[in-house]
Amino acid sequence: MIQSDINHFHLFAGAGSGAAGMQDAAPAIPGLQGRMVCLGGIDVDPAGAEDFYRFTGVRCAVRDLFSRDQYVAFHGHEPPAGWVEALPADVRAAAGGRRPNIVFLSAPCKGFSGLLSQGLSLTAKYQALNALTLRGVWLMLEAWKDDPVEVILFENVPRIATRGRHFLDQIVQLLRHYGYVVRETAHDCGELGGLAQSRKRFLLIARHADKVPAFIYEPPKRPLRAVGEILGRMHLPGDLRAGPMHRIPNLSWKTWVRLAFVEAGSDWRSLNGLAIEGGHLRDYLIVPEMHRGALGVHSMGDTAGVVAGRSYPLNGAFSVADPRAAAGAAQYSQFGVMRMEDTAGAVIGVKSPGQGVFSVADPRHAGPAKHSNEFRIVPFDAVARAVTSAHGTGHCVADPRTGWPAAAHGNKLAVTAFEETAKTVTGARFGSGGLCVADPRGGGGHSKYAVTEWDGASRTVISGSTTGQGAFAVADPRPGLARARGDHYLTAGHYGVADWDQHAGAVSASACHDNGSWSVADPRCVPADRALLEAGFGGGTLLGGDVPRNVPELPAANDKLVCRILSLDGTWHRPFTTLELAALQSLYDPDDYAEAEERGDVFQMDGTADSAHRERIGNAVPKKAAKAMAEEIGRAILLSRAGESFQLSSTPIWVRPIATALAVRGGGAL
Question: Quick check: pTM over 0.85?
Fold first, then answer.
């Protein structure tokens, strides 16, 4: 079989995950085998360039692609001395002076992302960042205008189709001017690569009509996998055999407790069902559980261990949960009071009212009641008690007579009914006379904090219209029942915990436990030799740190630590490690590193900061998704080289030859 090289180049290359995925592709047609060759990339981030070399073996040029005006708008100051604008010649140099057959662009997406407010996205800073999309495409087209690239892939967040519409329209016009057939589409990287995450992305694909007459078909879709299928093949979090990127983030104790109570597959809204009284959980008590059975309690059916000479509750499991005692039995009550006809419990030397049921309700009186006449009030129609020398005893009477006429003060702060006659208006404006009226009428005059009915007309909008001036609120009868998990209007999944058998959401550049579903209900246990301290409601273990053994106190709310709490569903709710996020992006394959990790050769990205690693991982194109796209594009290029312009496929066509004849706004090529 004849081998044919297919060169690919990457603008805004990032960590090189997409480039590495394209290198793994092996497109083929009968008699012709494609070999993917990476020519390099260009990016402004030096750490990303190092990762690019680490994963592809090809150097990535470090170069700022801003124009001078864009640089000033984004950074707020002039560029440093020696800074010059990148030119098409710089892009050619980054590719080693060679011409690629495929160019992949994944421009910065922060300004288009829904995680950024609409107001911020319109500022000069983010508009300059967004303009890099257009400038990057122009630099690439000019770099090889004499011998155009066969296929161009432009990938970004889905919201670019709305927030970046004016940039996309210019990009499409530019590509068509250079002879390309263009199609705007959307895809799920998880379905293209068979990943354990759903990652929906915008994709613009452009095929040079003269050089590639063959159709380019969409890659086949694969079912999404469960998180556990990927993480189950990895070492437990914190196992140093997997390297420093597999360490568990240090979170505050209160965050660990929150995660433990979030239902797997849900998010922070699960916490709304907990009863809180005085700032504490009402229905749960979180206490330390000591090791070696300290303060342990056996069930009635368990077998106890050997009873030694110093077998006490504090140094082992030497207590039993006895089900035979009825609830409220005397020996288990404090400050208990027995009825006169009840039987008392055993009397021992330390029994007092506070140590059990050692008080009695005695119905007997020792003689006549004393002071029974104290503070007595005699009814008006009853006989008074004897008058004694103690004048304060039983000498009060409930007198129904007030001495005032029935109409006295009847007008005080009165509210007159709408249909009644008002009282006399006196000189005392407040508190005298029926000066208030119950007015049932509505009308425009009563618009303060008004709420307009759904089918009514709102009041006039004036320049000083606020919530207190006019009916600017509306009684909306539409229910929010259509909202479901993942609806960002309702919730962004904060403190969300994914089930072990679910797939994760898209890995974002700012993935953290409190800004999305970035925790997982892990059913695996932590090795016993890592255990230091256990916490209540089923047991839990604090790992790492300088916590001494057998410390009975729980951590303070804001103490940073790594711990394991066995949640109510029997699993460990914990944040993803950085290495696990790389695995979800298919940048790291546990099977590929299984033997290498035993030799100490672990997966590692440039630098030591987890936050920087997570940002580059979140911005990366999943490796397996890039491989799937490259195989379809490579197959179309091979067909064109073989003089063929047709192939059979069961998947939809990405770009059709007649697309230049008719197109609609939005890039929907027909």
Answer: no
